[in-house]
What does this fold into?
Amino acid sequence: MAHARVIYDNVLYQMYEGLSMGSQEAVTVVRAACPCGNGQVRIVVTYEDTDWGSRDHDWHGVVACERCKPLYAFVGAGRGADVVHVEDKELCDRLRDEAKAIRRRFLALAEVEEVLEKVAAAFDALPSVAARYRLAVQLKLETATLATFRRHTRDCDTRRWLASLRHMSNLAALFAFAGGDPASVSAAEAQADALEAQALDALRPTMSLGPISLFASPREGQ
Ligand SMILES: [Zn+2]
It folds into this structure.
């Protein structure tokens, strides 16, 4: 018999309704009435049984209602999932893609290349690892100890090391150091952030389900 308990007004947990797929198991962890009330929405968690125990592999939502199926989609929200309108999710995805594209375009600018080259030259001109470490800390490229910095950069070309740190979050300090315009970094970042905020606003959840982890749920007979 499945173990069930009420989590929200209309949400039941129901365990062990899974179908076995080799070492992967799919289990319904959340179940609720669909928005129109004639069917159900479910969250199914796929987990893997390994030698080290079970771990969450993935999850997906199921709309078991002919009327609601074309209208709704699922998005992760904290430890749970929200049921949202399909067109809202599409708008959200589009806005997030635009935000990503803004960051990608900025990171690909020739000016970023020039700044990184100047920073690399400054590092290479320093006489010792300790001096390079101090500069890395000053530029907020390293937050760990000197020993860790040594490990991070051992046998590693300065340019390759810097290339691995080519993120928007690192650029403002590097631009300020190398005589670039840090405001151009923050302007692009603000533009991307605004789009991400719009993306989040676009999702107007119809209902919230969760938590969706197998391990946050009651298990029967264990
Ligand atoms: Zn429905």
User: Anything to note?
Assistant: The pocket of zinc ion is lined by residues 34-36, 38-39, 65, 67-68 (CB under 6 Å).
